[in-house]
């Protein structure tokens, strides 16, 4: 486990190796300095806790990868952070406690409790029970599933951890196969609305959704929303799940039904029945594209609406642009450059209560089902 | 196709379903203090957060001899100095392309025609369909002529479907009494529909003020107690540490009553005392707020004597530093009778608040900067733990801190550890800064975005402005009729005059120390 902290984190109070049964007691003592000059114990910082954040890391490499993220999350959303690692460096079951502190107003240190429990082999099955004993009552519990596979494939460990969570966070862009969308949508449907879902891939495309909504707003493109007839999304290498979610969102919000899929080399087109006729959505892998999506073009118009087109493109530096007729940026908007830690920290207070995601996921599932039928 | 409130189904779930619409924001008083300290930093932060519409122009309008380049440089310096996030080169280059400058004199009709031509030249290239927001960061005496000239120059669109919008933001103070406020409102109403007018009170954009409604109506434990059965009294304090500073000219005419009570404090009182609105849309919330103003007890001549204290700061020490008296401040008349402190006891005469005093106070050169609302609950019966009449238990107090250090605290009685029963008051404290760990946006960011999206919930409606002026004007007229026989003085760096202490101590209560 890395003890590095983010640049803005003031201190990570030293990690202590502890007995699993003593974790809670060690946490109680963690923020007191027994060697204070007065001879009495003094509080080192203020304990703050907005949530329980249970993090599943299948391997120690995964845990190391997210160590800095954990510190950054604690700064933005102080929590009791319980990292469960499905691999142990020492023994079957090993536990460590520490505190992640940062300076708040008035020079006070605000600290999050940080517990890491590593398990090897059969002991992995014991991890959910440890997490259950450590979550603080009366606070939301979020499960961040860092494994690069759908949580729906996570088996009994995931099932048990998800059962104690109010909110599950994962990143579908990391899944190796877009068919995982099907399993995930089925699982999401089975969990019902009682458990919040945050897909970081969905969060990342929010600036695109905002820009599309603005570009097609009736105030600047009258009639475009109702008469949209073509959407082309160019994307880079890697997962196409963000693209599927984007198409799913458009279809859900604009009332497109019954997608029929046609594939050609490097491109997939779905034809929907739109309110005013067919709508074609194409996802195309572009040779020069480096991000997902890279460029989006929309066209609208019909018998009773004037025709129009608009192209949007990702620029370097995390910016998005609306292009002019020559393909040059006409208007650039900043999109906050958010790393994984910031995405997770922003999702925690939202509790995954975005019904639009579930609906976009459902449509995405139907797009994939067509592809693999 | 499910529609959002903006008529755009894609806007649902994004920015509360109300997207800021492409628009030009014309700042009158573009080189002034407010523009540099608040408005330009607010717009820049909105840009960084991706909240500005794709089509947006910020057009500064002022007398000063500048062009786009020099205004952009001034804006960058202002952002560098006052923004919660400093400018960085990559983003600033994109942002500054939206900034323009139109030199002009507020009294010159030709300048408005030039402004219109400038806007017509700028907007097509930025995809702005003629939507315009006029931010009047100017003295109240200039509001009427500017509004009339805007109309004469053809810069105001009527509020009709499928037409570009014209909106106007008016800064406080709106007038200096009821008559002048009505005059301004009348003049504005001749040109703009009320739905196009956004009267800003930046206190309403602060997180704690917004969270007051959440605290009251999203928690089941407070609202049942929120009435005369359980609440002893309410104290609203807006304390300033600094003196009159560079605002001598304005402040000499205004004084504490006009500067703080008429707007900020009465708005806070409305938020505390209002009945539960049945919806969160602008008119419903504002209807409920004006109901509070309509219930404020009128102040008779006798009440003016016993329930209102005004005072002025004399020399003293603030945080150990010498502080001159008000009359020795630069730009202040040596015989000034302007109030720098006001304390008021008032009542909201309705079923919920019958008999509950609201103590309001504001002042300059107080020991520290602090704005808060304190709700003090009634004492527990004088039996059991509170049986010792000479040493009653401290009552429960719920405090909402508005600035600085936004948050809330609740004082409760607990047992000190040990074999004997000893009661001790402890404070449960919630601080936005340390709990949520992220920077709170400035109030102006939220408010400017609301204007772009056409949401007037956090802005004052005409009737509310006039109702609050009507209540305040009776105090002003009472003071005028009575003359200034005696103006109490309080040393700078203290919590106000002894007369204010007497005002509350007569009721067996005392002012809190924020």
Walk me through what this model shows.
The complex is a heterodimer of chains A (373) and B (514). By secondary structure, chain A is of the alpha/beta class. Chain A has 2 domains: 3-170, no CATH class; 204-371, 2-Layer Sandwich (Dihydrodipicolinate Reductase, domain 2). Chain A has 11 helices and 19 strands. Chain A has helices spanning 23-30, 60-65, 67-76, 127-134, 155-164, 180-191, 200-204, 206-215, 241-254, 340-347, 355-372, and strands spanning 11-18, 32-33, 42-43, 46-47, 51-57, 79-85, 93-103, 109-119, 141-145, 167-170, 196-199, 228-235, 257-264, 267-274, 277-285, 295-302, 305-315, 319-323, 329-334. In chain A, strands 1, 4, 5, 6, 7, 8, 9, 10 and 11 form a 9-stranded mixed beta sheet that branches. Chain A is elongated. Chain B is 36% helix and 20% strand. Chain B is built from 14 helices and 17 strands. In chain B, the strands form 3 sheets. Chain B has a 9-stranded mixed beta sheet, with helices on both faces. In chain B, helix 1 (33-48) crosses helix 2 and helix 9 (282-295) packs parallel to helix 13 (462-482). The longest helix of chain B is centred in the middle third of the chain and has 26 residues, at 248-273. Chain B is globular, with a radius of gyration of 24 Å.
- Proportion of beta-strand residues of chain A: 25-35%
**Tally of helical runs of chain B:** 14
- The total beta strand count of chain B reads 17
- How far apart the termini of chain A lie comes to 43 Å
Helix-residue proportion of chain B: 25-40%
Gross geometry of chain A: elongated
What's the quick description here?
The complex is a heterodimer of chains A (373) and B (514). Chain A is of the alpha/beta class and 373 residues long.
List the helices and strands and how they pair.
The complex is a heterodimer of chains A (373) and B (514).
Chain A: E1 11-18, H1 23-30, E2 32-33, E3 42-43, E4 46-47, E5 51-57, H2 60-65, H3 67-76, E6 79-85, E7 93-103, E8 109-119, H4 127-134, E9 141-145, H5 155-164, E10 167-170, H6 180-191, E11 196-199, H7 200-204, H8 206-215, E12 228-235, H9 241-254, E13 257-264, E14 267-274, E15 277-285, E16 295-302, E17 305-315, E18 319-323, E19 329-334, H10 340-347, H11 355-372
Parallel strand pairs in A: 4-8, 5-6, 5-9, 6-8, 9-10, 10-11, 12-15
Antiparallel strand pairs in A: 1-7, 2-3, 7-8, 12-16, 13-14, 14-15, 16-17, 17-18, 18-19
Chain B: E1 23-28, H1 33-48, E2 56-62, H2 68-82, H3 89-96, E3 99-103, H4 109-126, E4 132-136, H5 143-152, E5 166-171, H6 178-191, E6 197-200, H7 207-217, E7 231-239, H8 248-273, H9 282-295, H10 301-307, E8 308-314, E9 316-318, E10 321-323, E11 341-347, E12 357-363, E13 370-377, E14 397-403, E15 407-415, E16 423-431, H11 432-436, H12 443-453, H13 462-482, E17 489-491, H14 498-505
Parallel strand pairs in B: 1-2, 1-4, 2-3, 4-5, 5-6, 7-12, 8-17
Antiparallel strand pairs in B: 7-13, 8-11, 9-10, 11-12, 13-14, 14-15, 15-16
Helix pairs in contact in B: 1-2, 1-12, 5-6, 6-13, 8-9, 8-13, 9-13
């Amino acid at each position: 486990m890395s003890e590095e902290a983010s640049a803005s984190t003031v201190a990570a109070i030293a990690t202590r190796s502890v007995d699993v049964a003593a974790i809670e007691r060690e946490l109680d003592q963690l923020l007191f300095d027994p060697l204070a000059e007065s001879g009495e114990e003094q509080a080192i910082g203020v304990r703050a806790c907005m949530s329980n954040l249970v993090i599943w890391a299948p391997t120690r490499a995964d845990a190391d990868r997210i160590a800095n993220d954990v510190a950054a999350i604690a700064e933005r959303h102080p929590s009791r952070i319980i990292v469960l690692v499905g691999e142990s460096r020492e023994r079957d079951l090993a536990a460590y406690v520490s505190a992640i502190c940062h300076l708040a107003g008035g020079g006070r240190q605000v600290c999050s409790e940080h517990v890491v429990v590593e398990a090897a082999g059969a002991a992995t099955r014991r991890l959910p029970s440890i997490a259950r004993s450590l979550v603080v009552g009366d606070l939301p519990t979020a499960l961040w599933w860092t494994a690069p596979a759908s949580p729906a494939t996570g088996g009994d460990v995931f099932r048990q951890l998800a059962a104690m969570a109010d909110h599950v966070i994962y990143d579908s862009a990391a899944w190796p196969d877009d068919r995982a969308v099907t399993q995930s949508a089925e699982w999401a449907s089975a969990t019902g609305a009682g458990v919040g879902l945050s897909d970081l891939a969905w969060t990342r495309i929010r600036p695109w959704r905002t820009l599309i909504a603005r570009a097609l707003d009736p105030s600047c493109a009258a009639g475009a929303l109702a008469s949209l007839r073509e959407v082309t999304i160019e994307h880079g290498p890697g997962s196409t799940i963000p693209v599927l979610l984007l198409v799913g969102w458009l279809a859900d919000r604009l009332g497109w039904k019954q997608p029929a899929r046609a594939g050609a080399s490097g491109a997939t087109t779905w034809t929907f029945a739109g309110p005013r006729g067919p709508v074609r959505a194409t996802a195309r892998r572009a040779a020069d594209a480096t991000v997902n999506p890279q460029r989006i073009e929309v066209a609208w118009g019909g018998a009773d609406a004037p025709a129009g087109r608009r192209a949007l493109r990702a620029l370097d530096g995390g910016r998005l642009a609306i292009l002019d007729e020559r393909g040059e940026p006409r208007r650039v908007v900043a999109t906050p450059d958010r790393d994984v830690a910031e995405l997770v920290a922003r999702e925690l207070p939202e509790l995954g209560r975005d019904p639009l995601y579930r609906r976009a996921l459902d449509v995405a599932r139907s797009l994939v089902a067509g592809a693999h039928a | 196709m499910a529609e959002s409130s903006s008529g755009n189904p894609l806007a649902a779930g994004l920015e509360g379903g109300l997207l800021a619409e492409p628009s030009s924001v014309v700042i009158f008083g573009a080189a002034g203090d407010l523009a540099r300290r608040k408005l330009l930093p607010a717009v820049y932060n909105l840009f960084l957060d991706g909240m500005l519409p794709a089509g947006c122009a910020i057009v500064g309008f002022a007398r000063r001899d500048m062009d786009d380049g020099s205004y952009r440089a001034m804006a960058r310096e202002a952002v560098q100095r006052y923004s919660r996030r400093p400018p960085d080169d990559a983003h600033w280059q994109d942002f500054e392309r939206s900034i323009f400058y139109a030199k002009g004199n507020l009294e010159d009709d030709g300048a408005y025609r030039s402004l219109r031509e400038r806007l017509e030249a700028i907007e097509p290239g930025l995809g702005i369909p003629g939507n315009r927001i006029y931010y009047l960061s100017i003295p109240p005496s200039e509001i009427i002529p500017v509004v009339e000239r805007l109309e004469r120059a053809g810069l105001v669109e009527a509020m009709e479907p499928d037409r570009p919008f014209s909106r106007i933001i008016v800064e406080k103070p709106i007038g200096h009494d009821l008559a002048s406020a009505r005059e301004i409102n009348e003049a504005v109403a001749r040109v703009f529909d009320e739905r196009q007018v956004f009267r800003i009170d930046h206190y309403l954009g602060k997180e704690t003020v917004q969270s007051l409604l959440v605290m009251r109506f999203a928690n089941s434990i407070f609202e049942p107690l929120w009435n005369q059965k359980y609440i002893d009294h309410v104290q609203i304090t807006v304390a300033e540490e600094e003196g009159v500073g560079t605002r001598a000219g304005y402040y000499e005419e205004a004084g504490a009553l006009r500067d703080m009570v008429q707007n900020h404090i009465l708005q806070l009182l409305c938020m505390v005392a209002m009945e539960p609105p049945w919806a969160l849309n602008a008119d419903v919330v504002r209807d409920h707020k004006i109901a509070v103003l309509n219930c404020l007890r009128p102040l008779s001549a006798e009440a003016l004597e016993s329930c209102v204290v005004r005072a002025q700061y004399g020399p003293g020490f603030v945080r150990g530093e010498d502080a001159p008296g008000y009359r020795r401040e630069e730009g202040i008349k040596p015989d000034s009778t302007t109030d720098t402190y006001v304390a008021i006891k008032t009542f909201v005469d309705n079923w919920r608040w019958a008999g509950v005093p609201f103590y309001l106070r504001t002042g300059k050169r107080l020991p520290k900067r602090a704005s808060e609302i304190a709700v003090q609950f009634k004492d527990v019966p004088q039996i059991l733990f509170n049986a010792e009449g000479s040493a009653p238990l401290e009552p429960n107090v719920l405090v909402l801190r508005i600035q600085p250090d936004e948050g809330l605290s609740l004082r409760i009685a607990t047992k000190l550890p040990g074999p004997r029963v000893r009661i001790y008051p402890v404070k449960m404290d919630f601080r936005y800064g340390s709990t949520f760990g992220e920077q709170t946006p400035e109030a102006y960011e939220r408010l400017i975005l609301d204007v772009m999206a056409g949401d007037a919930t956090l802005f004052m409606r005409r009737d509310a402005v006039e109702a609050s002026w009507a209540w305040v004007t009776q105090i002003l007229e009472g003071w005028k009729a009575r003359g200034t026989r005696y103006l109490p003085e309080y040393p700078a760096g203290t919590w106000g005059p002894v007369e204010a202490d007497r005002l509350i101590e007569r009721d067996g209560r005392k002012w809190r120390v924020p």
